[in-house]
C-alpha cells in the first residue's frame, strides 16, 4: 500500500509538475496570443487608416484628374481659338501679299514701259536738239555773213558819206568865195 501510495504520489507530483508545466506553457501561449491579438488589432487599425488615406488620396486624385482634364480642355480650346485666329490672319496676310506682289509686277511693267517711252522721247529730243543746233549753227553763220556784209556796206556808206560831206564842204567853200 505504501509502495502504491508512493507510486501514486509520485504520479500526482509528476502530474502536478506536468500540469504546472502546461499551465506555464498555457500562460506563455496566452501572453503570446495576447501580443498577437494586440499586434493584429494594431495592424487592423493601421490597415483601416491606410484604407481611409488611400480612399482620400484616390478621391483627391480623381478631383485633381478632373480639374486637370478641364484645364487641358480649356487650354486646348484656347489653343484652337488662337490657331483659328492666326490661320485667318495668315490667310488675310497671304492675300495682301499676293495683292502687293501683283501691284509690284504691274508697277514694274509700267516702269519698263515708261523707261522705254522715256528712252524714245530722249532719242527724239536728242535728234531735234541736234537738228536745231545744226539750224542754229547755219543761221549763226548766215547772220555772221550778213553782219560782215553789212559792215562792209556800212564802211562803203561811211566812205560815200564822207565823200559827199567833203564835196559839200568844198561846195560851201567855193560858194563862199
TrEMBL record:
Q: What is this protein called?
A: GOLI4 protein
| One annotated Gene Ontology cellular component of this protein | Golgi membrane
Q: Which UniProt keywords apply?
A: Coiled coil
- Positions in coiled-coil regions: 5-60, 90-135
Species the sequence originates in: Psilopogon haemacephalus (coppersmith barbet)
InterPro entries registered for this protein in UniProt = GOLIM4
Whether Ribonucleoprotein counts among this entry's keywords is no
Amino acid at each position: 500500500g505504501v509502495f502504491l501510495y508512493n507510486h501514486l504520489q509520485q504520479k500526482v507530483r509528476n502530474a502536478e509538475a506536468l500540469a504546472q508545466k502546461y499551465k506555464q506553457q498555457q500562460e506563455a501561449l496566452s501572453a503570446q496570443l495576447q501580443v498577437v491579438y494586440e499586434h493584429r488589432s494594431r495592424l487592423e487599425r493601421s490597415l483601416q487608416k491606410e484604407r481611409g488615406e488611400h480612399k482620400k488620396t484616390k478621391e483627391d486624385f480623381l478631383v485633381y484628374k478632373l480639374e486637370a482634364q478641364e484645364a487641358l480642355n480649356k487650354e486646348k480650346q484656347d489653343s484652337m481659338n488662337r490657331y483659328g485666329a492666326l490661320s485667318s490672319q495668315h490667310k488675310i496676310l497671304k492675300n495682301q501679299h499676293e495683292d502687293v506682289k501683283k501691284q509690284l509686277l504691274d508697277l514694274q511693267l509700267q516702269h519698263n514701259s515708261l523707261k522705254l517711252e522715256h528712252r524714245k522721247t530722249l532719242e527724239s529730243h536728242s535728234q531735234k536738239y541736234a537738228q536745231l543746233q545744226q539750224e542754229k549753227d547755219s543761221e549763226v553763220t548766215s547772220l555772221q555773213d550778213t553782219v560782215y556784209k553789212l559792215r562792209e556796206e556800212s564802211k562803203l556808206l561811211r566812205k560815200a558819206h564822207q565823200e559827199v560831206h567833203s564835196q559839200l564842204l568844198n561846195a560851201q567853200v567855193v560858194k563862199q568865195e
